[in-house]
Amino acid sequence: MKFSAASSAPVDVATDLLAIPVFDDGIPGSEAAKAADAKLGGLLAAAAADERFEGKAGQSLTLHTHGKLAARRVVLLGIGKAAAFDAADARHLAARAAKLAGASNSKSFALVAPTGRDDERFLQLYVEGALLGRYKFGRYQTAEDAKRPDPVEAFAVVTSAKSAEAFARAAKRAEIIASSVAKARDLINEPAGYMTPRRMEEEARALAKAHGLTIDVLGPEKCRELGMGMFLAVSQGSVEEPRFIHLVYKPAGTPKKKVALVGKGVTFDSGGLSLKPNEGMLDMKVDMSGSAAVISAIAAIAQVGSPYEVHAFTALTENMPSGSSYKLGDVLRSMAGKTVEINNTDAEGRLTLGDAITYALKQKPDEIFDFATLTGACVVALGPHTAGVMGNNEDLSKAWLAAAKSAGEDMWPLPLSPRLRDQLKSEIADMRNTGERWGGALTAGLFLKEFVGETPWVHVDIAGPASADKEFGYISKGGVGFAVSTMVEYLAPRG
């Protein structure tokens, strides 16, 4: 898709579909909509009255212009209250326009940037939305409709911004980020029988080669030498060999700091001997979403550029039931030397992360982040669209949440109450791998905290937003690629 910025009046933009966003004050509050209505002889306002279009979020109204505008079609997109319009809304807006353009067989479409929302950051978000709104994972579909190519070839943002250079920068950054989010989605959406730990290794090696990253891959023997008892215990029930991946990006000059990103990489989670029911297992190919996110994000960072040295780690394995599976009551020795009593083999992600965090700390990072589809309890607490954020450093957590807000990804802080640590006490080991039912997301965070030490750390539980059960704006059904945008926002600041 080709991208451009148009500074002419919206009614003079030659395109197949012109999308005009309208806040909840309706057509009278939009200069672009009023101008289009005047050119159409009042037809737009009449149609809006007939269909009760008031600019509410989610509303849309489409008219063919019959040559009265430079655009073949005009569509009004309701976006609700002006004060509430944020980064996520900008992506959703452009995605809605892109989908309408595709559905109407348009080769080009243009989006009028809402007044005051056309700086470089918002321009980037519109391009990202236009790209991600067109994402499809159709590799295994054979119907003719699935094979039909997307007709859209060009997208323009109608903006009062004067700098062509600013738009070019925004579009380039947007393409890199959207491509990386799409890559994460592809990795997540592949069936678990295909996207095994060894296949993930191939994908990571390809990204490293394409973007100048260094990569080190550890097999089971090396992990055993390092004492990764928790990670290897999870893997021992599967015939698929585990892999531990370490990717590194280094800036040209002296890095300002070193940051570690750790992603949960359980490519399929059956629950092990604590077997999940059928419904609970159906989407467990998404349990490597944290891994997909950190691998894709570091590739994006390598392309955008960052003043920081960035390391991405993931311990990749399946969690399967078999005669060789780790068992309830087992005591595992972690790479850190801590012992863990197993009281639930379906709480395996924290075991793999504990060893991955210990390995990451050997690199002496200044900050460490982990991303995991870790607990259903976090979904109960925050719903399916919001990630829970925990940590041991308030300033780092605030900086991370600010990046998430700027990137348009929904995250919310959760506490790590020391009183809950008692739930993890074991009579025969240093701790158990799960606590009681109540506060399950927090006790999982406290478990990981045991391996972090004093290093500033943020834990992001993405169990809810990592996948979606239906399409919404720029979010596709299936894998979402959640947290990639925030990682790039935090680690590769503009300018």
* CATH-defined topology of the largest domain: Aminopeptidase
Give the proportion of residues in helices: 25-40%
* CATH architectural arrangement of the largest domain: 3-Layer(aba) Sandwich
In whole angstroms, the N-to-C terminal distance is 25 Å
Shape, per Cα inertia axes:
elongated
Count up the domains: 2
Number of strands: 19
Radius of gyration based on Cα positions: 24 Å
Adjacency order of strands in the biggest sheet = 7-8-10-9-13-17-14-15
Level-1 CATH class name of the largest domain:
Alpha Beta
Tally of helical segments: 16
**Integer average pLDDT:** 96
Main sheet summary = 8 strands, mixed
CATH superfamily of the largest domain: Zn peptidases
Give the class from helix and strand content and strand pairing. Answer: alpha/beta
- Strand residue percentage: 15-25%
Low-confidence stretches: none
Features:
19 strands; 36% helix; Aminopeptidase; elongated; 495 residues; 8-stranded mixed β-sheet; 16 helices; 6-stranded mixed β-sheet; Leucine Aminopeptidase, subunit E, domain 1; 2 domains; alpha/beta
Account of the 3D structure:
This protein has 495 residues and is an alpha/beta fold. It has 2 domains: 2-161, 3-Layer(aba) Sandwich (Leucine Aminopeptidase, subunit E, domain 1); 179-491, Aminopeptidase (3-Layer(aba) Sandwich), CATH 3.40.630. It has 16 helices and 19 strands. The protein has helices at residues 31-39, 43-50, 87-103, 120-132, 144-147, 164-189, 197-211, 220-225, 229-235, 278-281, 289-304, 349-361, 376-382, 394-407, 440-452, 484-491, and strands at residues 2-6, 17-22, 60-64, 73-78, 108-112, 154-158, 214-218, 243-249, 258-269, 309-319, 331-333, 339-341, 367-372, 387-391, 411-413, 431-432, 457-461, 467-468, 478-479. The strands form 4 sheets. An 8-stranded mixed sheet has the order 7-8-10-9-13-17-14-15, sandwiched between helices. The protein is elongated and about 80 Å long. The mean pLDDT is 96.
